[in-house]
Amino acid sequence: xxxxxxxxxxxxxxxxxxxxxxxxxxxxxxxxxxxxxxxxxxxxxxxxxxxxxxxxxxxxxxxxxxxxxxxxxxxxxxxxxxxxxxxxxxxxxxxxxxxxxxxxxxxxxxxxxxxxxxxxxxxxxxxxxxxxxxxxxxxxxxxxxxxxxxxxxxxxxxxxxxxxxxxxxxxxxxxxxxxxxxxxxxxxxxxxxxxxxxxxxxxxxxxxxxxxxxxxxxxxxxxxxxxxxxxxxxxxxxxxxxxxxxxxxxxxxxxxxxxxxxxxxxxxxxxxxxxxxxxxxxxxxxxxxxxxxxxxxxxxxxxxxxxxxxxxxxxxxxxxxxxxxxxxxxxxxxxxxxxxxxxxxxxxxxxxxxxxxxxxxxxxxxxxxxxxxxxxxxxxxxxxxxxxxxxxxxxxxxxxxxxxxxxxxxxxxxxxxxxxxxxxxxxxxxxxxxxxxxxxxxxxxxxxxxxxxxxxxxxxxxxxxxxxxxxxxxxxxxxxxxxxxxxxxxxxxxxxxxxxxxxxxxxxxxxxxxxxxxxxxxxxxxxxxxxxxxxxxxxxxxxxxxxxxxxxxxxxxxxxxxxxxxxxxxxxxxxxxxxxxxxxxxxxxxxxxxxxxxxxxxxxxxxxxxxxxxxxxxxxxxxxxxxxxxxxxxxxxxxxxxxxxxxxxxxxxxxxxxxxxxxxxxxxxxxxxxxxxxxxxxxxxxxxxxxxxxxxxxxxxxxxxxxxxxxxxxxxxxxxxxxxxxxxxxxxxxxxxxxxxxxxxxxxxxxxxxxxxxxxxxxxxxxxxxxxxxxxxxxxxxxxxxxxxxxxxxxxxxxxxxxxxxxxxxxxxxxxxxxxxxxxxxxxxxxxxxxxxxxxxxxxxxxxxxxxxxxxxxxxxxxxxxxxxxxxxxxx
Length: 876
Ligand code: HT7
Ligand code: ZN
Prior knowledge:
By secondary structure, the protein is of the alpha+beta class.
């Protein structure tokens, strides 16, 4: 497959000014009439052919200015329509296509979900509806008419404001007409037709615009949309208060569907959501589900400005909307909840998903320069690292400089299809700063490594800090240039408080941020009265791998005293990681794993410290995940040893803090009405962490405690915590509890997904057969991405020991699933295949098995571009 290259970008020869669409909805034969008002762009020679994109389309008719085109005036196929000699002046092109939503298993373009019609056009789905210049730099004003049988689709929705509608006399049909005054690219087009329940509300914007808010859900689920509606209103208010950004239509609609390839989609005025990010009730959704709903609702709403009003010039600029919008939703959640806890959770996600991506064959820059299949670039790097890059900008420019840059960006580019260069130019111009070096964060892949050595001279009262940055090679980028790395820091004095200091030589400093720009900086801090423990990279001020020559005592000191909660958490992670990396090596060599009792004491103290936030304590007690440990080990990884080391450490913490944990579990139960707020959720998270650890201590009391917890639960967070503790621990009572859970929630698909997830994650040899058997369970479905991801993708990405079984059977099963799914839904298949991305870091036998399966996939006939691309890159 030929790659698309950023260097080859050219604007289109023709502009499309307006689009009038007419849909006659039918499951097998929807007819779409598109009237496109086209114009040759300046600089395009008259007679230049107009080449429109298509995908699996059937052309019914084509006309120019009302006259049918002669067959020799155009060339048409399922994936292209070319007008060989278009008129010299502006003209209207009418294209009639026929599509079959009921047969659309890719869930791109117009498809069916639970008997309703819906669309997904990002990135290249619009071309599955009609022939078009289906790229983000072609902006047009859309008018959409939809017609359908009234009984089948009582609601007919599209972007913008509804301007007309009614019954069609003498038929059982009706219609609606929508007009979106804001020019937009085709990927933001949306249409929904179907039968729903609706939750309605209103929001008055800061300038007094009265906006109707509507959330459409499948019948019987409207009560479960209340939290989403509340999140939406809070998001709208927050964007006004924090960024001065106001909503710009008279109506904002969200439709929750059960078949969806990703999380949600920010179509102008008509967001379409995976229902798992809308529906929540105490008995069915966990606290994590509630916080995801809040975050995703905010994210899609925030796209209205960062993505819709200012869109991307081409798909290479995807991070322009995604990284920035993730940053905005992170900030929103930080303001709604605990900033420190949110930051730790975001960094956990970055390290567990983006760092491995950046270290393997799928690594790519935040702004890639080539792609073969754009759907494979909706990645942790574009989203999460993209958000980190925006966060660094704010750290470097300060809150006022950052806001000035954002304001200028909106002022300059509203209505544009912009680039990362435009984005950075706004910050450079608003603040007078040179961001040339900073641009490397968008251009260079790989996680920079920052090694720091510290040396205190008591005589001179100076602290010397030597910083050295390197960045390992990544595909297509052998050598890297030094990056601009902001390091937020403090010096923690002997009394545990931040110390004052004098001047700092050797690096530029603004406030508590040093800005490293060179491969090596020798920094001397003077006027340091006593030996400090430096706290570096506070708040994770840059997405780098930091190693500092601090010994266990220093790290324990930071864990106990650092004023920066992120670095307290990080100190625990650093100590645990050292123990686990050493431990898994020791287990491999047939030695016992050694665990410093001071570390266990520290965990015990954190658990018992009532001055600390509950959620924060729970996070500190959560030792690094298996994938994090594997990443630290780097090569010749044996997942069984990693797992064994991790369980040994967790058991040691549980045993050492048993009385404290029992006290927490007994004392933290909440009485009264359930609320999903951060404080209550934090309390539950600490209590459930205590429960999980207590089970590791073992004995009949521990298991009985979990069973009692499950039975007493009045919410899904507590019930699911008990279920997953038992199942993941392989406890004897797990089978009965799984059966009970299924009975209670049978028919509630989103909850049954949790039942699939927990079984797919069980770290025991029987899991593979169990997962295989569950693919035949009546509640499972190969056509629904949520079901498939819950069972199969979770097995591949959330169960290191069983996916990477030494006999290769886990890899074989997943490869079979990829090939099977590829025929139906290539996007879902390709995501599953990316689970192989760290295969080269495995020990020899497993590595060889993974390679065999990857090669089998790569060689299969008729592969989609999505899967072929991932397979080829994994093997390169
Ligand atoms: N912008 C949205 C991306 C998306 C998507 C991409 C490819 C295929 C299907 C998709 N559904 C949604 C989601 C977002 O980041 O907000
Ligand atoms: Zn997004």
